[in-house]
Amino acid sequence: MTKTNLLDFDAQHLTAWFAEHGEKPFRARQVLRWIHKAGEPDFDAMSDLAASLRTKLKETACVEAPRVVREELSEDGTHKWLLDVGTGNAVETVFIPEESRGTLCVSTQAGCALDCAFCSTGKQGFNRNLGVAEIIGQLWLANREIGRDVDGNWPVSNVVLMGMGEPLLNFDNSVSALRLMLDDHAYGLSRRRVTVSTSGIVPAMDRLREECPVALAVSLHAPDDALRNVLVPVNQKYPLRELLAACQRYLEKAPRDFITFEYVMLEGVNDSARQARELVALVRDVPCKFNLIPFNPFPQTRYRRSGSEAVRRFRDILMEADIVVTTRRTRGGDIAAACGQLAGQVQDKSRRTLRLQEVRA
Ligand code: SAH
Ligand code: SF4
What we know:
Elements: E1 4-5, H1 11-20, H2 25-37, H3 51-60, E2 61-62, E3 67-73, E4 79-84, E5 90-97, E6 102-105, E7 109-111, H4 120-124, E8 126-129, H5 132-146, E9 158-161, H6 171-182, E10 194-198, H7 202-211, E11 215-219, H8 225-231, H9 240-251, E12 259-265, H10 273-282, E13 288-294, H11 308-320, E14 324-327, H12 349-360
Parallel strand pairs: 1-2, 6-9, 9-10, 10-11, 11-12, 12-13, 13-14
Antiparallel strand pairs: 3-4, 4-5, 5-6, 7-8
C-alpha cells in the first residue's frame, strides 16, 4: 500500500483525512504542529500522540519532502538546493539570507509553459505542476537543512513564490501551500511576508484575492502591449489594461497597500528614458513599487543586462514621479541561483536526466 504523504495536506485537508480515519480534528492540529512547527517527520517522536495513533500513522502515512540531489552555497551566503521531483525532473529552491530576514524563493512548477523571452525556465518548456508536498516541502526542507538560530527561530522569515514556474497556473496546490505558510499551527508567517509573483494571469489574480490574499508581485517588464506581447507572451491573452485593472481590484484585499512591479532591465529593449516615462503614465492609477531586476544571462540568450547608467536614468525617472524603486542586487550569481537562472543547469532534458542518474548511481 502506498502511504499518504501528510505534507500534501493543508489544515483543512489534514482534518478531513483524520476524520476519514476516525480521528478528531484536534489530533490533526497536533500532527500539523509536529510536522511543520517542529519540523518532525518521525511519528514515533510525536510524544503527545497516543501510541495507537502513532502506530496507525506509521502504517498508513509518511512525511516526505522532495529529495535533495545537489546543494550549493554561494560566497554571499545564498543557498541553493536542486530537488528531484521524479521522472527526470528537477526544481530549485533558493535561500537568501539578509541582515533582518531570510527569504526563501520557492518553485511551483517543473518548467513553465509561458515562455517569456528572457527566462531560462520558460526555455525549458512545461513539465508538470508540483504537488503541495513538493511546494511546502521546499520550506520544510530549507528550515531543517539550515536549522534554527540561537533564539530558536527557523531561518526562513519570508517566502516568495518566484522560483521556477507560474504559481497561478498551479493554483490549488500553490494556495494549499500558502495556507500552510500562514497557518499558526504550521509556519505562522504574516500575509505581508509571503509573496506570489505572477506574469499576470488575470482571472487567477481575482481568485487569489478572494481565497488567499498575500502580497502580490506582477512581472511587468514593458510599458506597452506591443513589447510585452513579445517579452511576456501571455500578455496577448491578458493585455496591460486588463492586468492593471486586476491589480487595482487586488489591492482592495491585499495585505500591503501596493503592488510590486518587477521589471527586468534588458539593454536596448525596455530600458530607455522614453519607456520609463511611458511606464509612469501607465501605472498612474495603481499604488505600486518597482523592483528593477538586473537581467541574469543564461546560455543561448540574445539579451544583455542594461548598463548601470541606463538603470540609474530609468530609476530616476520613476522616482521623480514619486514611485518607490528598489534596484535588486543580484544574489547567488556564482551558483546560478539568481532570478531566471534557476533552470540553467537542468534545462536540457536529456542532460538533466543524465545528471540525476549520475547522482543516484
Ligand atoms: N512565473 C512567475 C514567477 C517566477 S519568475 C513570474 O513570471 O512572475 C520570477 C521573476 O524572475 C519574474 O519577475 C521573472 O520575470 C524574473 N526573471 C525571469 N528570467 C529572468 C532573468 N533571466 N533575469 C532576471 N530576472 C528574470
Ligand atoms: Fe514562466 Fe515566470 Fe519564466 Fe515567464 S518569467 S517563463 S511566467 S517562470
